[in-house]
Write a structure and sequence with these properties.
Blueprint (H helix, E strand, L loop, with lengths): L9 H6 L9 H5 E8 L4 H4 L13 H17 L6 E4 L3 H13 L7 E3 L16 H8 L1 H9 L15 H5 L18 H20 L4 E5 L1 H12 L3 H4 L10 E6 L10 E2 L3 H12 L4
Parallel strand pairs: 1-4, 2-3, 2-4
Antiparallel strand pairs: 1-5, 5-6
Keywords: Glycolysis, Isomerase
Protein name: Phosphoglycerate mutase
Enzyme class: isomerase
């Protein structure tokens, strides 16, 4: 797949200019952050609510990382000093694939449970179309996109209850903070302290990639862009499309808007697919 946007990194720009340019204000004033949703998982392929279930990348998801994310990042000559992921394998695996293929497997990956996908409660493991047939499309879209709409909490009768609640990858979740279901708003609040940490790193000059989940990416969009609760309900993030932000290192503010790297028609098609309930 071809990519249509190229953003040279400060490092690559320096190679094309005299050494004096390296001390210019332009070279030292801004830094970039990349937010990327992991490749499709087994549950994504089956159109199931996944949440905190540790579904691995599907073969298609691996190919998305290899043919969508990596070429876009490579063409734009983006480099990283640190990568953030959740503790869920689909997030970590996507990050590892990207670093390996960009020949920077030495870059550290910081895993954080607070970057896990929102918990879909008792919807976990069910096909979205089946749930829509039972509760109606309006209710399902409210659970999926509504800012304060909380799905029913996961119950012991759910086949994934024990595999989630007893999974050692969640050992760092503090007592009393393990969710049984979450709204988008709850996920936004959970992500906020991690975002503050990442922003401090970005403003100190670290080149950061955040390889996260769909709802977490939306939460980050709200924190970064400062958009309203109503507006974030309509934001949809396609898998493996790098979303690039540039920050002014003096003011801490954004320079321009987000740029989605890649073939724009592909991005439009995949964004619409994410927004729909599907079959």
């Amino acid at each position: 797949m071809r990519t249509s946007i190229s953003i040279p990194s400060p490092l690559s720009s320096a190679k094309r200019h005299p050494p004096a340019a390296m001390s210019s204000q332009f070279m030292t004033k801004t830094n970039r952050l990349v937010v990327l949703r992991h490749g499709e998982s087994d549950f994504n392929i089956e159109n199931k609510f996944c949440g905190w279930h540790d579904a691995p990348l599907s073969e298609f998801g691996i190919q998305e990382a290899l043919t969508v994310a990596i070429p876009a990042l490579a063409q734009s000559q983006l480099e990283f000093d640190v990568v953030y992921s959740s503790v869920l394998s689909r997030s970590r695996q996507t990050a590892e694939l990207i670093l390996c293929k960009l020949n920077c497997a030495y870059v550290p990956i910081k895993e954080d449970w607070r970057l896990c996908e929102r918990h879909y409660g008792d919807l976990t493991g069910y096909r979205k179309r089946k749930v829509a047939d039972r509760y109606g499309e309006e209710q399902v879209q409210a659970w999926r996109r509504g800012y304060d709409c909380v799905p029913p909490p996961i119950e012991e009768s759910n086949r994934y209850y024990y595999t989630i609640c007893s999974n050692p990858i969640f050992d760092d979740v503090p007592p009393g903070e393990f969710p049984l279901s979450e709204s988008l708003h709850m996920c936004v609040d959970r992500v906020k302290p991690v975002w503050k940490e990442v922003k401090r790193e970005v403003l100190k000059g670290s080149r950061v990639l955040m390889c996260v989940h769909g709802t977490v990416a939306r939460a980050l969009v709200q924190h970064i862009e400062g958009i309203s609760n109503e507006a974030i309900e309509k934001v949809n993030i396609p898998n493996c499309v790098p979303r690039v932000y540039e920050f002014d290192l003096t003011t801490g503010g954004l320079v321009g808007g987000a740029i989605n790297l890649g073939d724009q028609e592909y991005i439009r098609r995949k964004t619409a697919q994410v927004a729909a309930i599907g079959d």
